[in-house]
Amino acid sequence: MNVRTTAIAGLAVASLVLTACGREDDSGAGGEAQGDAVAEGKASGTVEVWAMGTEGEKLGDFVSEFEDANPDADVKVTAVPWEAAHDKISNAIAAGETPDVSLIGTTWMGEFAAADGLMPTPQDLVDEGDFFPGAWGSTEVGGTSYGVPWYVETRVLFYRTDLAKKAGWDKAPTSWDELKQFAKDMESKGGAEYGLNLQPGQTGSWQSYLPFGWSNGATLTNDDGTEYTIDSPEMAEALDYYTSYFDEDLSLTRTLDPGELEDGFAKGTFGSFISGPWHTGLVEDAGLDESKYAVAPLPGPDGGMGTSFVGGGDLAVFKDAQNPDAAWKLVQWLSEPDVQQEWYDEIGDLPAVQASWDTGELADDPQLQVFGEQLTSAQSPPSVPTWEQVAASIDSVVEKASKGDLSGEDAVKQMQSEAQSIGTGL
């Protein structure tokens, strides 16, 4: 039942914000609703591709099928380390020396589109409705799509089924009240030291906290992404609920060391936690038998499935691409359901195309199906150029609130004030 997938390193590595400069035709994001349609016929010529991590290592061999179907095309893949990717892409855009197409971390899309570096997605290239809604949302900047989702990840509830049974629970909690009681029972009856591990601030904590806000009806920006809307009763209520786990000693109030979560979950120190598909392998590598834990969708405030975070990677074609037509044809091919499923079989990236989940292991594995179900309601952060800066601000404020230094109401006011000072960049 072990999900073979890769963590999306672009969401975990702090990146510098790109300054839009060095381009004379700097029209910015949102200037075009769609790009020109791709020409009919087969792809031809050289297609230069940048890809990161395992994707960069494996894609070159994988696209041999595309080259067989397009004998006049030659795909050249350059593997780029995730830690160097942001600056490499931003520098290439500024210099006008980009490849044709690249894997782009979802939280970078607004930044690079606003720098006038990306082409709008062509008309009729793919059907937006084929993709998980949150994943497609990561490609849209100012109402225009600048790429196509390639693979996705989302966060669900991991919990020790044996400890839950001991605590009187034969199923996962389905509301916020149930989740709180579940965490309490995992400690008082199940034997866990901490009922639910949540991230108490520091880098990336926004990915843990914001799903509670989204589930409660909160938003981060207005519809066109020009103004922040963080300061709302729904966001404050969600933060008060989130920090109550620290106030009531249901979650550890410090950031865990590497490997501590997996080891603690295997030993029963932590009864449950929220994370992505890569953690199935990590907890089993820590010695936990798959029969002793399960995953479940995040609960909503009043029952039913809540909203989770969706991350992953998008494919985008650059405005300075030498062979944009063939590049978009490659993107289109990589978006076909059977190709997406083959890519999952190759390296474990969860498909962004929903139809890819209808057959094979993705359809048959109950654990994978939980992630697929959660993806139907998952959201991406707003694709605004300044998101990385705003996210860092939210991380800092969440840490203060988790320590009891700020109420939810005061915390979201501070988030709003700092976000307004930064601006959306659109």
From TrEMBL:
PROSITE patterns: PROKAR_LIPOPROTEIN
Annotated keywords: Signal, Transport
Record region (Disordered): 401-426
Name of a matching Pfam family: SBP_bac_1
A GO term, aspect molecular function: maltose binding
Entry's family note: Belongs to the bacterial solute-binding protein 1 family.
Ranges annotated as biased composition (Polar residues): 414-426
CDD domains in the cross-refs: PBP2_MalE
Superkingdom: Bacteria
GO cellular component terms, A-Z: ATP-binding cassette (ABC) transporter complex, substrate-binding subunit-containing
Organism: Nocardioides agri
The protein's name in its UniProt record: Extracellular solute-binding protein
Annotated GO biological process: maltodextrin transmembrane transport; maltose transport
InterPro entries, per the entry: SBP
